[in-house]
Protein 1
Amino acid sequence: MNTGKHHTENYNLATLIEQGELNIRSVAATTKNMTAGEYFDMLSELIDRASTFKSDLHKLISRDSDRNTYKSLAGMFNLLKNLGYEKHAIDFDAILDAYDRGHSRLTSAYAKKIMDSFSALCAQITAAMITHSPEDPGDDPHGLSLREWLELRQIERQKKEIVTYKPIVLAVDDSPMVLKSVSTYLSDDYKVYMLAKSFMLEKTLSQVKPDLFLLDYNMPVLNGFELIPVIRSFPEHKNTPIIFLTSEGRIENISGAVILGACDFIVKPVQRSVLRERVSKHIAKKGIVEKVS
């Protein structure tokens, strides 16, 4: 993880956690040997490479990229993931996948989606920068693990997180119109991730941990029925609610999905009130099951 380039900047982790763009707690939990200083070095590296990254994104947008562009982008995507930037994790993989398949128009669309968010992220990181030196040697982040640094600074947001936490919903549907409707109907109360390519679900689940799935029944490559075993293969999703989105004429096929673990279905076209009611009900049930287990 360490970039090999030592920076002197420190950062206010409490501010970065409050901003919510970087999942620093997850990084600390999964990379136990990383020091806070190494994490700060990666933040500084991100700022150092920001202009190059934006230039690479512009090349994608204008469809003027080459293999070197994608090599540079892949390194930056990896850095962003190591920092706990989950917002565009699916889009990052989609860009590299689209490049492998020669879909320049699709890569251009994903690059436009990332550009503005990335600029906002850089502004937040810069705003959290602390330029003064540590007041004493014991305050030096380069000598502490990231997890110890978080504990030492007592960055406790548990009560607030319980109030403000938005459950994560992953919608898998090959229809952009359906995905847009789901996002519009749910985004006020849920963090909605959208996936148009069902075959990318397994890779997506290594980066995003949904509290509920919305699956289209009829999709190319892998349909919703075939995605259930993929979801249940992840231990953390043995009981995660799965709701099917299905055309009215396919309701008879739902019984097989229920046997595999789906908990409900919604007939298309999706109605806002119905979607919100079903999602709310099954998210609440999931919370009760987790407390009992």
Protein 2
Amino acid sequence: MLNSKKIIFIELLRFFSSLMVVIWHYQHFFLPYNSNSKDSFDVLNSKMFNIFDFSFGILGVNIFFCISGFVFSYTYLNNNYISFKNFFYLRFARLYPLHFVTLLLVTIIQLININLFGGYEIYFMNDIKHFILNLFLFLGWGLEDGYSFNGPIWSVSVELFLYLVFFISIPYLKKYHILFSLPLLLFFIFIEKIDLQINDKFFLGLVLFFSGTLIFHIFKSALNKYYFLFLSILLIIVSLIGNFKITMFCPGIVMFFIFLDYKIKLKDKTEKIFEIFGNMTYASYLTHIPIQLAIILTINLLNLNFGFTLNFENTLVLFMFIILVYFISYFTFKLFEKPLNNFIKSKLVD
């Protein structure tokens, strides 16, 4: 169907999506997130962060949701039955260990901030209630008062809900294919579009995730893959006409990268590089906030002692930050994520 068990061009898209989040959150080095900054991010020349009329970060997150729908369908709808226990343990092994470690790291840094400088940095809802919500991944559910601790983890919490809905749907998706995935997607679109005074993050996530599932069924059934390419380009173009339509752009861009993977055979070295990029995405997503907090804390400590300053308006500093994030993410995956993931699976998964 595609070039390999890992869809290499989707790995590249995952990397680009995580990069969007990392770049967008560079604003945390400015007011009101960094209390010692002299400038607000709003007054800076931010054209590199706002190419279209939407925030880079949320676009990256929503592309992730759509990618997840396709990858989960590609993984689980092509295979035999998987028990809920194994499904849960696989997700736990993949997501929770790094979340737990980064949560503890952020907590330690914020405790230092509040004790030495009298306030928190970046995210300010760092009390017992929000620690418990973070610990059990009950974020993005409308229970929180604002962003807290390692803020981006809210989307992982939403993804867990999407995984549950997907697992329940697996027998019907396998049996009825498009005849089930299309009506289900249309139902979620209808619910997302009407105002029911409920959490819209869940329903937008459901729309994008099950768009990925529908993409899987369309690609699998398409005899001529160039029709698939045409549909992807059409969705992207229509999404950019008038108001930006994220529920059309995300499926369109995911479809385009799937077609690239189907059509282009890469050299082994290039595939390996793309796979490394993909491997770094989850680590970059969870470590860039602790890295920012550590940088701000270090500067605050050095300011007290040495009068050290760092100009975050300098583009070179931005690139240095990005390189640092992915350098740390590479070794986080290689030395922590992957070994612990394999260890937990060997102990818990049948």
